[in-house]
Amino acid sequence: xxxxxxxxxxxxxxxxxxxxxxxxxxxxxxxxxxxxxxxxxxxxxxxxxxxxxxxxxxxxxxxxxxxxxxxxxxxxxxxxxxxxxxxxxxxxxxxxxxxxxxxxxxxxxxxxxxxxxxxxxxxxxxxxxxxxxxxxxxxxxxxxxxxxxxxxxxxxxxxxxxxxxxxxxxxxxxxxxxxxxxxxxxxxxxxxxxxxxxxxxxxxxxxxxxxxxxxxxxxxxxxxxxxxxxxxxxxxxxxxxxxxxxxxx
Length: 249
Known about the structure:
single chain; alpha/beta; Rossmann fold; 7-stranded parallel β-sheet; two-stranded parallel ribbon; about 45% helix
C-alpha cells in the first residue's frame, strides 16, 4: 500500500530533473499523476516511464506563465481523474546571468513570469479546486535562493523569495479549509541542466555544499513526498531546505 493510494496529483515541469523524480515517486506511492510540461516529448516520456513501472499517469501540456493554460490544466486534471488532491508547482528556469544594473528587462519579465507568476497561477486554480474537494496539499518548489542570494541572478533570487512568501500566505489563509501549502528549497541538484557545466565550475559549486556533493533529484522528491502525505499533516506555511548544508555557512 502506497502512502498516496487513491490520490490524484499534478506536477508541473515534470518532463525532466526534479519534476520527473517527483512524478515517478508520487506514482510509485499509489497516486494517479498528471504530468505537465511545456516540452511535450519529455512529458510523454515521463508518462511512459511511470506506466512501464506499473503506475498511472497522463500528460497535459501547459505553459505555466500563461494563466489560461494553467486554469485549463487544473480543469483537465479533474476531467481525467475526477479530482485534485496534491499539486507540486515545480516548473522554473534559471534565466540570464548579469549584474542587477545590467539585467535585461525582457529577461527579468521572463524569469518572473515562469518562476513566480506560474506558481501563483498554479496555486490560484489548485486552491479553487481543492476547496471543492474539501481539502488538499500544495508543494511549491522554491530554492536555497529563497533565503540567500544568487549573485548575477537577481530575477531568480527575487522570484524564489517571493514563492516562499506566497507559500506562507497560503498556509495562513487556508489552514482552516483543510488545505496545506509548503515550499521546498533545494540546493544545487545533479540534473541534466548541470551536465554540460565546466568541470572547474562544477567543482567550485560542489565545494559550497558542506556535505561534499550535489544533491539528487530523488532526494528532493522524497522530501516533497513527505510534505504531500499525511505524515506531514501538522505542517503548513513552511519552507524546508534540502541543501547539503549550503545555507549553514
